[in-house]
Amino acid sequence: GAVVSQHPSRVICKSGTSVKIECRSLDFQATTMFWYRQFPKQSLMLMATSNEGSKATYEQGVEKDKFLINHASLTLSTLTVTSAHPEDSSFYICSARPFGTAQETQYFGPGTRLLVL
Amino acid sequence: TQLLEQSPQFLSIQEGENLTVYCNSSSVFSSLQWYRQEPGEGPVLLVTVVTGGEVKKLKRLTFQFGDARKDSSLHITAAQPGDTGLYLCAGSSAGDSNYQLIWGAGTKLIIKP
Lengths: 117, 113
What we know:
Oligomer: heterodimer
Radius of gyration of chain A: 13 Å
Low-confidence stretches of chain B: none
Radius of gyration of chain B: 14 Å
Shape of chain B: globular
Mean pLDDT of chain A: 91
């Protein structure tokens, strides 16, 4: 099956620093990658949609200058949380939509737990 | 704005009982997916239903897509402690070129031994 990895799985950082999270599709090329944020016991909240080689599309209320997304290749997308603050602490999950398969299918990474002190 | 209402949000039952989780919308979806998520992990796809009236079975789990493709249900027979987790439904609209998913609020399921 399609596998999506995320790195790191867990990160603790000081307030004001930037954190980069990588999302890789390991055995397929991803036309589109999605970044989600999830608060405890809640559903997934879509932050942005990125297509390889073009600028990400951010959801309303998500600051594009704070959450930088780079989708440099068909297998890698990165999310950088700039100048992180404690309120940015959350569980960040990426998903990837394979190229050339059922359009609705998304495969999810294992998530990254971010804690900002 | 498309919405997907999922119910119940929380369910705690004894091992061996049956249960049903519902996802309802006023919008039509081209497909609907069900995921299960463990704490600290990403969602894992259980099934995708695409045809109105479609029924899919995965061992003790039965998934149904409404005839009008506006609603779906997940039925678990003889629930086991291993079924414990967060169940999420998500709908996809063919009108969205990126095929973004519209998510339900999730159902936290606890099966007590």
